[in-house]
Each structure stands twice: as C-alpha cells, then as structure tokens.
Amino acid sequence: MTFDESYFSIGRLDRLSYQDTFVHRLDPRAKVVSTILFLFTVISFPKYEIAALIPFFLFPVLLTTLGDIPVRFLLKKVVIVSPFAIFIGIFNPLLDTRTVAVIAGVTLSAGWLSFLTILIKFTLTISAALLLIATTSFPGICHALRRLGVPAIFVSQLLFLYRYLFVLMEEAMRLVRARDMRSFGEHGSGMTIVVRLIGTLFLRTVERAERVYSAMLSRGFNGDMPSVKQHSLRPVDVLYVLATISFLAIFRFVPITGLIGSLTQELSK
Amino acid sequence: MSHHFVEFKDVLFHYPDGTEALKGVSFRITHGESVGIVGANGSGKSTLLLHMNGYLLPSSGTVTVGDIELQKKTRQEVRRKVGIVFQNPDDQLFMPTVFDDVSFGPLNLGMSPECVQERVMDALKTVNCLDLRDKPPHHLSGGQKSAVAIASVIAMEPDILVMDEPAANLDPKSRRSLITMLKTFVHTKIVASHDLDLILDVCQRCIVIREGAVVADGPSTEILSNKTLLEENNLELPLSHQRR
Fold first, then answer.
1. Inter-chain residue contact B109 with A18, CB threshold 8 Å
2. Which of A45, A135, A212, B72 is the most buried (most CB within 10 A)?
3. pTM summary value
C-alpha cells in the first residue's frame, strides 16, 4: 500500500540522522545557519540565471558525500515534491516567448530558460533542506532554532509536529486499514467515507491533545520546552560557517561558469 | 514521613455535559501504602486519577495531598508530589527523544543540568532503557514506550506514584519486570487496573469503584477472593485464584 510506503520512508529520513560522520557531528546551529544562507543565496538569483546556479550543486553534493547519505533516496524525495515546482513554472514557456538563443536550429525562448531556473532552484533548496534534516535530525534543528533566538512557542509547535506526525500517521493508517478490511471494491471507498474518516481522525486528535496536555501539566509544564543538551560551538563549527559564507559569496558575485568556459577556450587555442 | 498521604472526602464530580462521574468518593491512603483501584469500564477510575494531580478539580468535596488541599492555586505544588503514569505511553511521551522526555519533568522542577542528567540516567537505568536515550519515541516498541513513560515520571522522584493500567499492552515478560520494579518503589503507590493479578502482586489494599462511588475497600487478598463482589463489578477472580 502506498500509504504505508510513504510513511516508512519518512521514518528513514529520520534514521539517517543517527549516523556519526563529520557533517553529523557539526553543531546544529552551524548547519542551520549555513543552510539558511544557502537558501537565500540561491533564491536571490534573477530568473534567467542558469549558468551561475550550477556551481551551487557543490554544496548538496559535498554534504551527501561527507554525510554518507544515499543519493538515490535523496533524489527520490526531491522528485516526490517536484510537482509543486513544475506547476509554478510550467506556464512560463507559453507566456514568455521571446527568443534568447538558437541552438542547433532550435529556438530557445526566455520562458523555457526561466522554467529551468525554477527547477534548478527548487532542486537545490529542497535537497539542502532534506540534507539538513538527514544530517541534523529534526529535534536537533528545533533546539538549534531555540538557541538562535526563535520564540519558545514556535519551537514547541515544531517539536509537537514532529513527535505526533508519526502517531497521527499510524492512527490514520489504522483507520484506512480498518476501512479496507470491510470495504469490497468500490463500496466503502467513496468520498463520503473518506470525509468521515477525516472527521474521526480529527476527533481522536482533539482527545489525544487533551490527554497529552494533562500529561504535560502533571510534569510541571509552564510554557517552555526545556532541554539540557548544551552544544558548544567548536572552532570547526565556526570554520564551517565561515567557509560556507565565503563560498556562497564567491559563487554569488563571481561568474565562475563563465570563467571556466573562457579558461577552457584559452587552453584549447 | 507521615505527610505522603492522599485523602478524598465526599468528592463529587460532574463533567461539563452533566455526566456524574464521581458521586461522593471518600478514602484515605497513608504513607507507604500501595493501593489498587479496580472497577468496571466507565466506573470512574480514570476520573478519580485525574483528581490526584489537579487536572480535574472536584465539583464539591475535598482532595488533600500531603498537607495541601487541592485547589486551583495549589495545583502546581500537588503536581510536584504526585507523579501520574498515563495509560497510553504515546500521550505520555511528547518530546522528540527519550532523553528529552525523561528530562522534561526534572527541568521543569528547576533543577540544574548536571542534576537532571543524573536523575535521567538513574531513572532510565531503573527501567533498563539506558540504551534508548537518544531514540525518538516513535522508533520504540510498545513495551519500551511503557518503560520510558514510567521513567519519565520516576525521574521527578514523586512522593506518590499513580498509574493507570500500567501493564496494558505489555508482553508477559515486560509485565513481570514491571511488577518487580513496582515492588521496589517504596513510596505510596496507587494503581488502577483490570489486571487483578498485578494488583494482587503489587498492592496490599484494594478499592472497588462502581458508578462513581466506593463499594469496597480492604486488603487485596480479601477483596480479590470475593467472587460475588467481583462479579457484581464486571470483574472476575484473579487467575491465580481460579481453580479449574
């Protein structure tokens, strides 16, 4: 069943963060900060910029290799979310038909170029975000955010989201299984039943929230989610952030691809 | 150490929708006692337990824990004394990792990080789950979840330990180790369960609840061998008392 499969692969992303590599050992704050910087740098490029974006693939490739993350798994995840990006960009070739280049007799319109830029940006940002989770673990990111000054209420919401996503999915899975068990073919899988299932899930969630809250109160909850793990920034963490910043700056402001191109032309002369 | 007692005096409670869950419950549990609370489904056991740490407040009557009368203002103090282990460990374990979860209570009590670290390690050792400390709860088995849920409460070192169906969903071996562990906990214990053999093993005293009122209160050996009383309450003799 597809539902079970997608559920277990979410768990897998989670398990990847148990590893112990150079990237996993870095302070979560260093990774969060450099990933955010990376995202903003990638997004900041104008919409026809393909060549300048290519060098940025170095970042995910390095993290995948150093962090020992299976490439196929990562790519699969990127493909799963890709429809969002495709829908955003799909009309560009139709709307923006100015010709920018003619390559081997085929005219390339500006729309295709911007569509491609969207796809590249999307691949870069999503893989960076996935790599952050796979190398840091979700709770690690949350604690890092808290220590970087994000208000407690947002962080606790994120923590609950992560914790109960799995519980909720199991609950939904049980409901779906129970329905499938007693519905034969078309009967019982209609829209009205789905709506009722969602309703039931919602009610169960409310009741659970009530019970969780009572469990929290009985352990002295007072608004903040405390944590004892005190990571301290090591020189290597600072170095990592600085290295990321300088590479991002170079890639952003120096046309690397153009330079490499003209260099190879020079050499081949 | 006579202050670890729990006293209910004519406690009445009705839910906002008008359902009368407790209709005048009175009992006194003194220091070091271990008490089983039994009764049919819907007899009011869970409502009763939720009064012990002030999640619910009596509509009339009084609940006294230690020297403190339970009121809205004193709830926080009462919660320091009473640790409740809820029935479903998924409700109890709300933090992202086992370590974070067990440290939640001690941190909220305002203890120093070193002290918390020590408490958490001790609690996890008690339930034999030290190796699980960095795992997220959704990667644990049912028995492990129950054990960690118990650790999360004993890490606060409560004077009074309250448990709702602690052995539900446990395999026989996990259940047995839970019983052994409960026997080592020297403070006051209150256990609500349908597992009468567990009550017989762990608790000296037993209170039977029916429709929100106490119908019997006495030594476990006496009450749990009274066939008619048990059957009137949708219960049956513990397996260890049944002859075939």
1. no
2. A135
3. 0.73
